[in-house]
Amino acid sequence: MGANDIVDLAQNQLTRRRRDRFISKVFNRKEKQFLLASTEVSTKMWIYWAMKESGYKLSVQCGRMKRFIPLDFSCELINQHIGSVRVDQFHFKSFVFQTRDYVYCETYLNPSERFVHNVFESTLAVGMTSNELYRQLAEDTEKRCHFKPGSVQIKKNVYQIPQLYVNGKQQPIRVSLTHDGKFGAYLVSSL
Amino acid sequence: MTNEDLITALKKIVKPYVQDELAFETLGEESDFIHDLKINSAHLIDVVLDIEDHFDITIENEELEKMVSVGSAMKLISTKIS
Question: Could you tell me the domains of chain B?
Answer without folding.
Answer: 3-81 (1.10.1200.10)
